[in-house]
Each structure stands twice: as structure tokens, then as C-alpha cells.
Amino acid sequence: MSLKINEEAPPERPLKAYAFDPSQGRNLGNYMTVSVRNEQLSPGPVGEYLAVIDYDVANDTYYHPVDLDDPKLLLQGGLDPSESDPRFHQQMIYAVASETIRRFELALGRRVRWGFRGGSRKDPSRGKLRILPHAMQEANAYYDRNLRALVFGYFPASETDPGTNLPGQTVFTCLSHDIIAHETTHALIDGQREYFLETTGPDTPAFHEGFADIIALFQHFSYKDALLEMIQRTGGLIYRQRVGPTVQPEGGRPVIQDELSKSNPLVELAQQFGEAMGMRKALREALGTPPNSKALESLFEPHERGAILVAAVFDAYFTIYLRRTRDLMRIAQSAGAVSTPGNLHPDLANRLSIEAAKAATHFANICIRALDYCPPVDITFGDFLRAMITADYDLVPVDRFGYREALIEAFRLRGIYPQGVISYAEEALRWCPPEVIKGIRPPRCEGLAFNIPRPTTAQHQKRNAVILNRFARDNAVALGLNKGQKVRTLSFHAVHRTAPDGRLKVEMIAELMQQMDVNLDPDDDSSETFTFRGGTTIVLNDQGEVRYAIQKNLGKNDKSNHRLARQREYIHSTIAKMAFTSYGDEEIKDLLPRRGRKRPMNFSLVHRGY
Amino acid sequence: MATKKRASIKFGPNTVRIRMYRVGFGDCFLLSFPISNPPPGADTHRHVLVDCGVHVKGDLKLIDRAVGHIEATTAQKLAVVIATHSHQDHISGFSQKFSDFDIAEVWLPWCEDLRDKNAVKLQKKSALLVEQLRQHFEADAHESSVTKKRASAMAAIANLVQNKTALVLLRSGFGVNAQVRYLSAGDNLKDPAGIPGLSANFLGPPRDTKFLSQMDPPAGQRYLALNGKRTERLNAVEPFPQRWRLASNRREIAKLRFSESDRKVFQKALAGQSLEALAFALDQAKNNTSLVTLFNFRGQQLLFPGDAQWGSWRYWLEKDDAEAILSGVTFFKVAHHGSHNATPRSALERMAKGKFAAMVSTQSVPWKSIPREPLMDRLGEMTKNRVLRSDSLKVEGLMDAPKGPALSRLPKGFVQGDFWYDYLIPV
Predict the structure, then answer these.
(1) Which pLDDT does position A497 carry in this prediction?
(2) Of A573, A595, B390, B423, which residue has the fewest beta carbons closer than 10 angstroms?
(3) Across the interface, do A65 and B149 touch by the CB < 8 Å criterion?
(4) pLDDT, position B76
């Protein structure tokens, strides 16, 4: 009788990648190892969620796929970082995309899904997000829902102003950890909120960009080596954009590289990309410019506007980091230790890095969880603030370090005013139960099945859909929906989370949407039409009681509908800004939201503006 | 029954005249400002020529005749020659003939100043891309049929091809010792070129770095021609050595490769789209270098924005004084031939309804959607029908010219010429 040894597959697969991008060389722990969930992989690599297909459209050629199960690679944690071996690029892109997906799954407490369906049954990449690491010759990378893909470009660095690159050197966007995380996040948001790709106002594209930058930036604080070094060089003030040299130059004139001050990569995004474009600095920064409550009134380009959101969240994060480490600094100082740049005690630096990483994870989780608490359409920065406050309150009612207070203050300083709240107090900012908004308390939604811990079966899902839809129609007014109009249930899922005190919380979150076709010009019935949408995200507890009805009322097609007026205005100004709309009428129709065919944002154009 | 006779304004020593020549798709405007108390026998007016050019695909072959007519009208004396930007349809008419003129000043936007580092950088990049696109489109046109979008893009590129002759003439002051000024947003000139009582405020182009980056075409791009089955490379970058490349029939990628239809989808989405969009982006960038001039003469405010589009307007539309400027405009030369995004709604709506007149030099060839009909309608409403399109003008002997809306009668203040319209303002 042979002894059958039960071998369970190891939970993680180590894969090498750049922490930042090739331009950092071996500094700052740039050569790092990402631990991804160990799953069955075929060459590509192709896993459950992702299919890396290295097809170069410009050169009409494929590149050799990497087989991550090859024993030679398994022995060393994957290929070593290399700019010239496409298989390393495929490995890195798979690793970072998987890491980003995992972060979302941990925060959301469930498996992610993509925002697209499609692909024929014979298509091996059906249901997966395809990633093309060398798709085109362009200084660009974007998510395209219609292509069901992330496409990454490569380009020659500027001949005249290449920054730290060689003039004309090939720069690969797929080797930038930041860019991969950013683009994967676009796809992940799309999977949670399919209508956030529809531009209904200046905040919607900016939200996508800002959120994607936030996730990519928080990633930096999990790189131990880079964090430790930056803590040393900034004396613990990790938000500083420039750090002093390792060795003070004589007479202020540096002669060797260690005497040069440098920028802080922790708070920057895509440094190689920015430099290669002749920008002489990273593509974007966490804190950018000082808070200006008027900035929102004049910045409409998605990246510029999104940068305000990023700065607000990071302002709060750094504030919390300082709060959390204040006692450590006081202890160090009372012991007579000096905490100036370059002189921190290694133990202190270590403890600071632990706090920084912990707080980063907390904040990233707050942001990701807040997605569930967002309305189904027409997201604004103010809505997102309320979603973050509510999501965090639900999980951590006692906010010892004042995370929520820090977030509120940071948003307030930047002029982000949520609609329909009476004050900036935390209670006012939380989403309200429906009885507070509408005065009507809806009954419980009976009969929903959400089992713990097994996921619901397909049959249960179907039943849940029917029950939710009926519940929505029967209680339309209380939930902020139009009575008598069709309601579409976009999604619903059970969420399981564990609070710090060990309680298991179970909720059901559903997105309900309504829509109507209206004219672009309210006074002209012959003008083009577009589909205007509204809806409510309902959060139900395990008793079926509606805890929150996060709503964007569809309303009527008349002058009293402010949201409709705002969207019309926004569409007009968008059309006015696009060059090609002067030259062809068909193009305008393509920009308008349409029923059924969800017309997503054209990321390639947004991103070309960097 | 007495018929109301409209008192017609005649051109005289106290009239400002704005003349729009019908040249096709292009601009050629002659402004004439009266001099107060001119000595007997001397000129009664000083003339300013704003642009002189026509698009190669929208040419009615009238531009030379226009130059000749300008010669006669001004007795070869021009106080100022303005070239708002270097699109062909605004400068193709600037030829050696102008060297016979007596020209006091030439005004150009700062983006044409070859001593300015930023201007040179932008120009170089743009010129390189325009040439590459032009070659690529041409090669493509031989291989397969041209789509509507591609035709539009090709027309845009044709307009962008550098007209070295005209630019050299302009930058050198036509060799007649004209003073050449390079102007930007915020500049103003009082009594320029010997025209007392005239002041010119420039609202664009700005020197703002953010504006510049908007105008910057993508750096270091090299483009590829994909012609159905054949692939032709125009400076394509090959990122990896041969050993890593796999043809689609290799077994290593058997499980990965895209189906033929999928491959075509990707090719279309990634390769084709960017080229037309790039052509339009380059075109728009050039339009946004337009010199935007607000002439102020004895209480009249004449706005000549060249071809400035939204990207340029926003720089001054959002300032506090925009309201005052717009509501005081008494004449508006409609930007970019009446195209959609060259007259922002927020600008038009803030002009004083019924208090200004407008002229549009345009026709619907080569672009059907220029001028934009809803914009023309709204202009009619805002000016109480005191707006004229150059293509409404019937020119003797002109065959097959694109026809604009027919006029039952000329609006108040306008006079018709052989191949021009005049707008007369008593001052």
C-alpha cells in the first residue's frame, strides 16, 4: 500500500519585477519580488483572470510567451529583470496586474469580476482580461472595454530631452509598475461600476484617473527597501518630494552621485515615462501643488482634476502616518536620539516603515471598499468622500487615529463639496438611511439568500435578482427611483467583512439603474439624443433592512432637473474641446451616452493628454 | 403707401469698413480705419489686412484677383498686415506682389518667432509629423480607397504643409522695411502703424506652459503604414531582436493567438485611429496659435480671433474681464470658418444680442460639417440677422462654386461688391 501524500499547492508564487521602472536601476530595492496567488498558468502567462498575449500590432508579430511553470524559472522566482527580454515583460505585467487584483479582492472581501462579457466560446481568452505588453508604438497605455484588454505602448525616448534615459532609447510602458497598476485599476473599477466609464460630468473621468493613481501610489508603501531608504533620507517625512543627498557635498557643489539630491519615488508616478517625454520629472506626483479650494473651478482635464482627488487622499494619509508615528518620535527624542535625515536609528526607521505600510494598506482599503458605497452612475468627488466615510464607519465605528476626520479636512481644503449635505461633520457626510431622505421607511426585503461562507449558487442568484427588482419597483419612491419606470438591476453581491473586533458583517449591495432618452438641446426636439441615467445603490443588512439608499435621482425631463442640465452642459463643452468634432458630424454622436450600448470613455485620447 | 426706405450707409471719411473677400475656404479681410482731419489730397483711411489665403481643396481661384483688388483699393499702402497663423488657408496669398506695397507693420503670433525656443520646438515637431502623415496618407491612398474620415484628415494635413515662401516674406516684413511684431496674449498696442485712435488688445495666443503642452504633438512618434495584407514600415521601432519574434502560425502561440477577426479589430483600434486623430490634433494645435485681436476704434470693438479654437479661448474666457469684453463686441469675425468648436457657446451667449454684426468666410467644401448649421442659426439670432457668409455671395462667371444660403436682401449695414461683402460702421 503506497502512502498518498496530500500535497497542497503552495499559496503563493514569487515573481521578480521592478518596484518602480528600469530607470531606478538597482537602487531602492527596485529589483523586487512580487508574491502572487499561485494559480494554474499556461504559457503567456494565462491564468484565471488574465491572459497576457504579446502581440505587437505595429510590427504585426507575436513575441515568445513565457512559461512561468518552467522549472528553471520556478527555481529562481521567475526571470531576472531585463529590458531586452520580452518574456520578463510578460512576467512583470502578469505579476503586477495580479497583485493589484489581489489587493482589490482582499479589500472588497469577494472575487472581482470584469466589466465586459464577450468573446466567442472558442476564444481561449474568453472572460479574461487580455494584456498586450507591446501593443503599439505610442507613449501611451490604456484600458479598452470594447477590446477587453489593457494595451501598453513603447516609444523612443526624446532625442533632445530624454532626462535620465538614453536619447532615443526604447521606453516600455509595460515595465512601469505604476502604469501597470494604474491601468489594471481602471479595469477593476469598470468591473464594479460599469457606468463610471460614461462621462456625465467633469468628475467622472477625473475620478477614474485619480482613483487609479491612488492605488498605484499606495502600492509604493509596501516596498520595504524603498520605504526604509526614503525614511532615512527624509528623516521620517516621507511625503517630501525631494530628498537630500546621502553625503553632503562640499560647498554645496556635488561631485559624485551620492552627493546629488534626488526626487522621492515614493510620492511620484511613472518617473521614467515622464522623463522620457522630456518632462524632466515624473508623470504625476502625490501631493502636486498646495491645496487650493478654487482649483476645482478651473481644472477640467481628467488628469489635472484627478490629481486633486489624489492629493486629498494623500494629504489625509500622510497626516495619519504622522499621527501614528508621533509617539515613536517622542520616545526616540526623549532618549536623546536625533531624528534628522540620514541619522535615524535603524530600529526607529523600521518601526516607522511598518506604520507607513500599515496606514497605506488601511487607506487603500478604505478607497476600494468605498466603491461599493458609490451611486451606480454619475460619480462626483463629493460622493466618493461620503462613500469613504460611510464605508469606513461601517467597519471601524471607533476611529482612534481620526482617519475619517483627516479625510474630511483634506477634501475640505481642496474645495470638494458634496452635494446635499448640511455640514462637513462626519455624521452629516455619512450616507443616510432612506427614511431620512425621503421620509418613507421601506419595508424589509424578504427572501434574499446570501449564505455564509459559501458563495450563492446560480439558482440563488437568479432568485435574488427577481426579488431585488420587485422590491425596487414596489418601493421606488422610498429608494429614490422614479415610480412606474423600468428598473435595471445592474449588480448585486453579498459582502463579508471582518471588523477589527472580530465581528463578521454580512451585507447585500445592489445597484439599481433607470434611464431615459433626452434631447441634447432641451429646446430643440430635432437635436441629437442621448441616454440620461440615474439610480440607487442600496445596502441591505442581513435582515433585509435598507441601511442606505445611495441615490442619483433620474427625475423628470424638465427644467427642474439640475443634474440633467449639468450633464447637457458638460456634453456641450466636451464636444467643443475635441478637435475632430469640427470635421465630422458622426463623431459627435459617438461621444454621446447611449442606451444599451454603454459608450465608454475613450481612454486612449484621455491618456494621450497624459 | 409709403415704403420704408432704409438709409444706406455710404463709405466715407467717417466710416470704418470691414471687407470680406470671397476666396473660397480661407480668410481675406481688409479693414479700413478713417483718419480724422486728413490733409487735403491725402489718404482718408488706413488699411489693415487680416490674413490672405485659401485652402488648396477649397480654392475658387479668386485670391489673386483679391490681391489685385486690394492693391487698387489701398493704393498699395497697408498700415498693417496680419497673419493670424500659418495655415495655408490664411497665408497662401502672401506673395512677392506684396513687396510692391508700402507696409508699415507685420503682426504675427509669437509662435512664429524663430528666435523663440518654444516656438521653434513646436514648429519642428509639428513639421516632422505633418510630413510623415502626408507621406503615409498618400501611400495609403494608392493602396486602398479613402474613407470619409481619412479624406477629412488629408484635407487637414494639406492645410498644414508649410508655405515657406509666404512665411519668409512675412517674417522679413516683405523686404520693405515693415516692422515685424510677434505678439502674445496680454499685449496691447496704442495708435499702431500711424493709425491714431486705434488700439489693439491681444487675447491670444498665451505663453502659458500648460497651453504649450496642449499644443505639443506627442514626442518621438514614428508611424507605421498598414495596408491590408502588406505592411509597410515608416521608421517603425523594432523593440526586440529577431530571436523573440514569432509568426502567427508557430505552435508556441497556438493557444494564445488572436483569431483573424480579433487581430483585425486590434489593428483597426490601435493602428488606424491614432493617425486621423493625430492629424486633427495637429490642425487644432495650429489653429490655437492664432493671434486673437480685439480692435478698439472710437468705441467700436472688433473681434478677430483668426481660427482660435476652444483650447485658446478658454485662456481668456475664464478671466473676470471676459464678460466686459464679450458684451462690448460690435463686430465678430467668426473663428475658423464657422466650425463647431471655434465659437464656444459660453462666448457667443455672452455677446450682446442684437448689438453686434458678424461675417463668416466659409463654404462647405472641403468639410461638410464646416460651417456648422446650428451655430450659424444661433449667430443669426444673436446678431438679429446681421450676419453674412461669404458663400452666399454670387460672383459673376464663377462656375460650380459651393453655394451658401441665398439672401433675400442684405442685412443692415452691409454692401455687396463684385466678389466681396463690406460692413460699414459709422463712427
Answers:
(1) 63
(2) A595
(3) no
(4) 94
